[in-house]
Design a protein that fits this description.
Number of helices: 3
Helix content: 25-40%
Shape: flat
Strand content: 25-35%
Largest sheet: 2 strands, antiparallel
Radius of gyration: 21 Å
Order of helices and strands: HEEHH
Oligomer: single chain
Number of domains: 1
Length: 90
């Protein structure tokens, strides 16, 4: 049950599960991120005296090659290229 004043979803369940603390290693975290994929999107504008000088648009996808291929993100040619690079590293 959620405490008074904590955010709840529409069905009344707490927004944040405050169950027992779970310690996750960096390796497990990286494995979860690569298996699910992460998208980072951001914009940065550098201005001086209200004059925009530099604009940087960032769209980053971080996922394993297998995950990207299964979801259709990775194009066929890019997958072959990734396999070739993986073979070169071994």
């Amino acid at each position: 049950m959620a405490s008074e004043g904590s955010p709840n979803l529409q069905d009344g369940s707490p927004l944040v599960d405050r169950g027992p603390a779970e310690h996750i290693s960096l390796c497990e975290t990286l494995d979860r991120v690569l298996n699910k994929g992460v998208v980072i999107h951001g914009d940065l504008t550098i201005s001086v005296a209200n004059v925009d000088l530099i604009y940087l648009g960032l769209r980053l996808l971080l996922a394993s090659v297998e995950t990207a291929h299964e979801t259709g993100i990775l194009h066929f040619g890019a997958r072959d290229q990734a396999q070739m690079h993986a073979g070169m590293r071994q």
